[in-house]
Amino acid sequence: MFLKRVLYYLDPRTLFRKPDPNMSLRFMHGINRISVFVFLFCIVVMVVRACYR
User: Fold this and answer.
1) How far apart, in whole angstroms, are the C-alpha atoms of residue 45 and residue 8?
2) Helices 23-51 and 2-10, interaxial angle, to 10°?
3) Residue ranges of the domains in the chain?
4) Does the pLDDT of residue 21 top 80, yes or no?
5) Is 14 left (phi over 0), alpha (psi -120 to 50) or beta?
6) What is the pTM of this model?
7) Does residue 1 register a pLDDT over 90?
C-alpha cells in the first residue's frame, strides 16, 4: 500500500493534472517531487559506485 502511494506520487503523468487552487501548495509538491527524484538518483549512483569497487 505504501509503495503504491509513493509510485503514484512519483508518476510523471500526475504532474500535469488539474491545478490546485492554492499555488503555494502546488509549488511545494513540485519541489518535494524534485527532491525525491534527486535523492533516488543519488542512491542509485552510490549503489553503482559501491558495486564497482
Assistant:
1) 23
2) 110
3) 26-53
4) no
5) alpha
6) 0.63
7) no
